[in-house]
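Please go through this chain and its backbone structure tokens and walk me through the local backbone shapes. Keep your notes short.
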Amino acid sequence: MSNNTNSLARVPCTIVTGFLGAGKTTLIRHVLANARGRRLAVIVNEFGDVGIDGEILKSCGDAACPEENIVELANGCLCCTVADEFVPALDQILNRQPAVEHIVIETSGLALPKPLVQAFHWPAIKSRVTVDGVVAVVDGAALAEGRVANDLAALARQRAADDSLGHDNPVEEVFEDQIACADLVVLNKRDLVSEADAAAARARVAGALPRTVKIISVADGKVDPAVLLGIGMASEDDIENRRTHHDLELDHDHDDFASFVVSLPEIAEPGALATRIASVAERFDVLRMKGFVAVAGKPMRLLVQAVGARVTHQYDRPWGARESRDGRLVVIGQKDIDRDGIAAMLLA
């Protein structure tokens, strides 16, 4: 192919959407580790004050997507900040040499994908990029138990009992909007559920789909990049057929949610911290916690992630020679979450 043709070709972009803790970052890490020489870039839209997901991806150290090809946008929901955040990020990536062959965009767990897909019609980027496909990652373990995230039962009961709030759960609406825009649904955490529960989760997703879309079940986000990349949907040209709850709204917000960062000192033992995090999640109805912490006597940084009371931890990379061994944990929950109580319990 000639250089002139390459310069005119639009770079395909895969939008990875999904609720908090569904496994989007894990899935993207798997894609980066199995890129088979394809030059990739990643845009991470973190909801919160610290770009933890971007840090996780950068720790991959994969030649297919060097650290400079991972761009973090932490100043707000990507679908709300297209002009200020998304377009400059695309410009930054598209100007890189050697040229990027595919861009993966990880939205925040609270993002509505439709406004982002619509942004691909903007004159500044329309001729340069296209939406190869929208991939919705779903927490199969939670969905098998009837929840779109790990522990929203208490929230649902509270909303149902309060007529002033109405009966529409905004978390459910976000989930359904993500499904409505999907070209592929990845039902993750297959290893955590039985055959019957997996079938129930698949049926729940199928019931929310307004059109025929492929659903695949996986464990640990392990999807062959050949399945995720190269779908060739040009989703922006089909956007009007993707009906969502927010189609009649000119704007939207995420006022039902809040996030904050707790600084953690060096710890003695990971298991004790995991137990404390699980207790905090149960007591304060936390949706998601994720971050890093230093363990005494260990040169490796400990990555900690929690969805509700389900906590995982692993060593991801050595601490840098000039890097402060200060731990940081992003906490995400409802807007009235008890920040002081959570911080006190985590630091106890």
